[in-house]
Design a protein that fits this description.
- The protein is of the alpha/beta class.
- It is 39% helix and 15% strand.
- The chain has 15 helices and 13 strands.
- Helix 1 runs parallel beside helix 14.
- It binds 1,3-dihydroxyacetonephosphate and iron/sulfur cluster.
Length: 332
């Protein structure tokens, strides 16, 4: 019997989640790629940088992280005294998988004159081998603060690294990792879609390959894409990132049409993140109730991973590009 079927169908899941989070002084943090119902029940929805900041500043006793494992690990690294739980511990990330810590350690050791920048989408072990962590929201801002002659390694996303390198005119040694979701967008199908919607701007995440980015009118983190899509005068916008974010766009601008960029089959269903999709409302309820699965990190690794994350927070722009969205339900 699966997890979902073990729940009483007559139970009011939303009311139970609200009761448990009150009882346990828990905060529910959710990424924009989560299912719409999870985003709607979360105390806070944001991009990786927003969520890191919330995790570092919350006074809750427990953080229920509705996102992928590396995000929940960041919450634990920054708030070690809190209990951090994740609805499904199998919610990984292809970028994390593409950068095994032992291989990365050997690579870093082979380039001792390079500063190591890692995208936050990596394991705690890789963070522990890093000088500064970046997210898609602050990478440009952080790299611009580094001396022009400083040699750089960028891991694990070669597309984000390539985008930064082209935009800032800086050479970087790129680790060859990719996001399986953003890699699936098809340039050919995107061009066909643009022809069907003349004038519709394209907003793309920098995890997309260059052949998608070069068609984009706006490139940025999930928060920045959300801001662009809701504030532009265009009535129809093509969105080249995980389609979960369209939920927030439709709430913020219901009069507009948001179209997910297509994969090779001409639609966007293949661009759903399979890792994010592992978290469900049922698993959210069960993990609040059981206070697990819990993120547990080796303390020495946690301490080494905290330094580059703190450096990131210090070097980040003061404000997130999108407005914080704090939900306080009427029954909380
Ligand atoms: P953001 O930091 O832009 O939300 O990106 C996280 C992510 O995993 C994108 O695939
Ligand atoms: Fe990782 Fe890509 Fe999923 Fe983001 S969308 S969590 S980068 S696999």
């Amino acid at each position: 019997m699966g997890v979902e079927s073990s729940l009483n169908p007559a139970m009011d899941l939303v009311a139970e989640i609200n009761r448990l989070r009150r009882e346990k002084n828990a905060v529910i943090l959710a990424h924009y790629y989560q299912d719409g119902a999870i985003q709607d029940i979360a105390d806070f929805v944001g991009d990786s940088l927003d969520l890191s900041r919330k995790a570092a500043s919350t006074d809750a006793d427990m953080i229920v992280f509705c996102g992928v494992r590396f995000m929940a690990e960041v919450a634990k690294i920054l708030s070690p005294e809190k209990k951090v739980v994740l609805p499904d511990m199998a919610a990984g990330c292809s970028l994390e998988d593409s950068c095994p810590p032992d291989d990365f350690k050997a690579f870093v050791e082979a380039h001792p004159d390079h500063m190591v920048l890692s995208y936050i989408n990596c394991s705690a072990e890789v963070k522990a081998l890093t000088d500064i962590i970046v997210t898609s929201s602050n990478a440009e801002h952080i790299v611009s603060q580094l001396p022009a002659d400083q040699k750089l390694i960028f891991a694990p996303d070669r597309h984000l690294g390539g985008y930064l390198s082209r935009k800032l005119g800086r050479d970087m040694l790129l680790w060859p990792g990719t996001c399986i979701v953003h890699e699936r967008f098809s340039e050919k199908e995107l061009i066909k879609l643009q022809a069907r919607h003349p004038g519709a701007p394209v907003a793309a995440h920098p995890e997309c390959p260059d052949q998608i980015i070069r068609h984009a009118d706006h490139v940025g983190s999930t928060s920045s894409i959300l801001k662009f899509c809701t504030e532009t005068d265009a009535e129809t916008i093509i969105v080249a990132t995980e389609p979960g974010i369209i939920h927030q766009m439709e709430k913020a601008a219901p009069e507009k049409t948001f179209i997910g960029a297509p994969g090779a089959d001409g639609n966007c269903s293949c661009n759903t993140c399979p890792f994010m999709a592992l978290n469900t409302m049922d698993k959210l309820y069960l993990c609040l109730k059981a206070e697990g699965p819990e993120i547990v990190l080796d303390e020495a690794t946690r301490i080494r991973a905290e330094a580059p994350l703190r450096r990131m927070l210090e070097m980040s722009p003061a404000q997130s590009p999108a407005k914080d969205r704090t939900i306080v339900g009427a029954d909380l």
